[in-house]
Recover the amino acids of this structure.
């Protein structure tokens, strides 16, 4: 089944590309979910594996859904993807930094007090 979805110049978008992208995204998502919930790996190993799966899923979606790199002329999609990646890195890096900073600054007594106050909700 190689039906044409739309045609834009020399670029032909097919159902098979969209199907491969969808199946790939679902498989990568379910793999990450399974690894995180079944505890097959822990700590840094799990974080690295999930990070690699996220990068692969990013590439699958950029290539098979957004068709980055296939257009002729201006590379505005690639520039937008780069800016999106910078924003995501700032958000994720900043969040991890804040959580790590709060974790190191909170004393065990403060942690116990916080957990007790959350139980009363």
């Amino acid at each position: 089944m190689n039906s044409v979805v739309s045609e834009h110049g020399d670029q032909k978008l097919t159902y098979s590309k969209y199907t491969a992208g969808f199946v790939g995204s679902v498989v990568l998502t379910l793999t990450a979910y399974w690894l995180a919930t079944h505890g097959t790996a822990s700590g840094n190993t799990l974080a690295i594996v999930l990070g690699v799966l996220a990068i692969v899923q990013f590439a699958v979606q950029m290539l098979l859904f957004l068709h980055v790199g296939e257009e002729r002329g201006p590379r505005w999609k690639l520039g937008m993807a780069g800016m999106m990646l910078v924003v995501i890195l700032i958000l994720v890096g900043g969040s991890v930094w804040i959580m790590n900073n709060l974790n190191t600054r909170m004393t065990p007594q403060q942690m116990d007090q916080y957990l007790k106050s959350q139980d009363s909700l």
